[in-house]
Write a structure and sequence with these properties.
Blueprint (H helix, E strand, L loop, with lengths): L3 E4 L2 E4 L16 H12 L6 E11 L2 E11 L8 E4 L3 E5 L21 H12 L6 H11 L8 H13 L7 H11 L4 E5 L6 E6 L2 H9 L3 E7 L8 E8 L5 E9 L4 H18 L6 E4 L3 H10 L4 E4 L1 H15 L8 H7 L9 H7 L25 H12 L4 H15 L4 H11 L8 H4 L11 H11 L9 H33 L15 H17 L24 H10 L52 H14 L20 H20 L17
Parallel strand pairs: 9-12, 12-13
Antiparallel strand pairs: 1-2, 3-4, 4-5, 5-6, 7-8, 8-11, 9-10, 10-11
Helix pairs in contact: 2-3, 2-4, 3-4, 5-17, 7-8, 9-12, 9-14, 12-13, 18-19
């Protein structure tokens, strides 16, 4: 067959045949010899491997004497060579065509020493880097000889994890790290077995966060963080900068009350060991097992239920159980049904949570639920429910509930029964008329815990990793949050310098508390200022219903008292939770500089000093106008214009006439007295 060479049982085109290796040279080691052959065949569609080797004792030491090198497809390919620091070709033909890419050969997909060190560092310290990004970084070290795939990256990471010191498994290493580093932890094993059932631990950074912000805690479970199906249980606090501060972590195999009771018992032990005050508020989802365990372990702590989850569940039940009141209104009702958010919009929250002590405040929402939508609809019922959640007084809350029942009964009795049975019995844990009396610092949802769950998962490559991988991810997440918190604190300090320092009633507070606290106080100051307007009513007497006491900040009544006494607010009137870590130094000269008084009218030309107009006498005004009229030239005095207009472009005839006239004037003025200009010259007497 012309153009083909028969090798074994396959016909291979000449351009696809593998060439024999080049002539052998002398090599210092057999590794150099193999590297030479691999370098040659990486561009010729083949690869070699070591089949066997022989050793010989030399001066009492066993040394490698010879090796047999074959094609990596040696099962069918008979190419073979023997090397003794040089190679001798035994079979120079391959019975397979060239490979399309070197990645088809495992021998070419190996990592060099630098790449192995890089991947080991990424596996043990930077677990959040995906395989494709790790591969890109490794290829940058040797771009011309890197043919590995993502699967090779995964396999190399697996080998690194298995090469544990002392032969420990990843789970054993995770527990060993907790012990060696002296971290506070508890481990629960199954009875008569050494299988981990639950782990509860914390870090020094978390202990510091807990000691700083112990009043309000949030807790919840998340899933898909490890291959063992253990639930990640997180307990968090909220910083005065509205960021998440992790407190404790836990892994548990169950979500029943017994499992939660064990975790909360460890939390109480940690609290006693650290001498931290008990939390005053704990926010959770509507999970009965967790709530029952909390009632047993922390009986004096007020429980709150996440308002977002309450509204989301109600919204789902309304969409599921809704019944059209009449067939003829089904189409109109369907058009009116939309999907409102479980929580009100920002402007809606402002109206629903208006301060009852503010002037002209009234109950939010319409008088009846039916007036919100002329046609009863799912959206109308859900809006009425959200308005119920944000009622500021208990009487208004009960009145609003009766309105909803009367407006949507009997057609929506299933929905109303669900609300009566599942939500109303513990409305004191989510309704604003109750939660505003708790010192929760404005926290009404459990969303910060969801944020903490998402933060952990962003540092995980996969949700089916070992516990050791999860522990490394949590440590990286905590380090990242600590850096973010410091940056946020510095940003808030700079913002305080720019926006708030210099307000008289605040005194030195902008240098000592966070910007969020300052903005809340300024909001109360606006309420006080609004009450001073003639058309508004003054502030009502301060009582136990003051909504702002939940923030532990000076409210409008205290600001009014300070203004009447002409004194500034002090740091003692602010809860320590709002204090800055490092107060600003007001004695710094730059911080004492104040802006000049702002000018109100900046339009037009500058006027007299202080932007004031001086009065002018009437006689001076009349004489000034007459003198101005006398100075104006008359349009009819002296006949027609003798000078050309400066605004008009001269014509060609005028330019030529002007040139001739200047020539005559020059010749006439050379020999005697110059006469008067000619009236026929249009440019005579004009501007030259």
């Amino acid at each position: 067959m012309e153009g083909y060479t028969l090798l074994g049982t396959e016909d291979i085109p000449l351009d696809r045949q593998n060439p024999p290796p080049p002539p052998s040279g002398l090599y210092e080691t057999h590794e150099k010899l193999i590297e030479h052959l691999q370098t040659f065949y990486v561009t010729h569609g083949a690869a070699v491997v070591t089949l066997n080797s022989n050793k010989r004792k030399t001066h009492g030491i066993m040394k490698l004497s010879s090796i047999t090198i074959v094609c990596d497809k040696s099962g069918k390919c008979k190419w073979e060579g023997a090397g003794k620091w040089s190679y001798r070709v035994l079979e120079g033909r391959h019975n397979h065509p060239k490979s399309l890419d070197p990645a088809a050969h495992p021998s070419h997909r190996k990592f060099n020493a630098g790449q192995q060190v890089l991947l080991q560092n990424m596996t043990t310290k930077h677990v959040a880097i995906p395989a494709h990004e790790a591969g890109s970084l490794a290829r940058d070290l040797a771009p011309e000889t890197s043919f590995f795939t993502n699967k090779d990256i995964y396999n190399e990471r697996q080998r690194v994890q298995k090469r544990a010191p002392g032969g420990l498994t990843p789970t054993q290493r995770f527990v060993s790290n907790l012990r060696e580093k002296g971290l506070r932890h508890r481990v629960k094993y199954q009875e008569d077995r050494h299988i981990i059932e639950a782990i509860f631990w914390t870090y020094p950074t978390c202990e510091s966060n807990w000691r700083r912000f112990p009043e309000v805690l949030g807790m919840d479970n998340t899933y898909k963080t490890n291959r063992y199906g253990l639930f990640l249980f997180q307990i968090i606090a909220i910083t005065p900068h509205n960021t998440v501060a992790n407190v404790v972590f836990g892994l548990t195999s169950t979500e029943v009350e017994e499992g939660y009771s064990w975790s909360l018992a460890q939390l109480e032990e940690f609290r006693s060991e650290l001498d931290i005050s008990r939390p005053s508020i704990i926010i959770t989802d509507k999970e009965n097992a967790l709530k029952n365990a909390l009632a047993a372990c922390f009986p004096l702590t007020q429980q709150q239920v996440c308002l977002y989850h309450i509204n989301a569940n109600v919204k789902g039940k309304i969409n599921t159980l809704w019944k059209d009141p009449a067939p003829e209104t089904a189409v109109e009702t369907a058009s009116a049904n939309e999907s409102p958010s479980p929580l009100p919009a920002e402007e809606e929250v402002e109206s629903l949570t208006s301060n009852p002590d503010a002037p002209d405040s009234s109950a939010p929402g319409p008088s009846t639920a039916a007036t919100e939508d002329k046609i009863p609809s799912q959206e109308g019922l859900f809006k009425a429910w959200k308005s119920l959640c944000w009622q500021a007084e208990e009487e208004e809350f009960q009145h609003k509930w009766l309105e909803i029942r009367s407006a949507y009964s009997p057609h929506q009795d299933k929905i109303l029964d669900y609300l009566e049975r599942e939500k109303m019995p513990y409305h004191h844990q989510w309704a604003l008329c109750h939660t505003r009396h708790y010192r929760n610092f404005g926290q009404r949802t459990n969303s910060p815990v969801e944020t903490a769950h998402n933060a952990v998962k962003t540092f995980l490559v996969t949700g089916t990793g070992h516990l050791l991988t999860l522990g490394i991810a949590i440590k990286e997440m905590l380090a990242h949050k600590e850096r973010s918190y410091k940056a946020k604190s510095a940003e808030q300090a700079n913002r305080a310098r720019e926006d708030h320092i210099g307000r008289g009633f605040l005194g030195h507070l902008p240098t000592k508390i966070t910007c969020i606290a300052i903005e809340l106080i300024i909001g109360q100051y606006r309420v006080y200022c609004a009450s001073l307007l003639p058309r508004n009513t003054p502030l009502s007497p301060c009582n136990s219903n003051c909504t702002f006491m939940q923030y532990a900040l000076p409210y409008c009544h205290k600001i009014a008292a300070a203004e009447e006494e002409k004194v500034a607010l002090t740091i003692e009137s602010v809860h320590p939770r709002w204090w800055l870590d490092e107060p600003l130094d007001l004695e710094e000269p730059l911080l004492r500089i104040r802006d000049p008084k702002m000018v109100q009218n900046l339009h037009g030309r500058p006027r007299l000093p202080l932007n004031n107009k001086l009065p002018v006498q009437r006689s001076s005004q009349s004489s000034q106008r007459s003198s101005q009229r006398s100075q104006l030239p008359s349009s009819r005095a002296g006949g027609r214009r003798i000078n050309r207009s400066l605004k008009r472009t001269a014509t060609t005839a005028e330019i030529e006439a002007g040139t001739r006239g200047r020539g005559r004037q020059g010749r006439g003025g050379r020999g005697g007295r110059q006469g008067p200009p000619s009236s026929s010259d249009p440019l005579a007497g004009g501007i030259e």
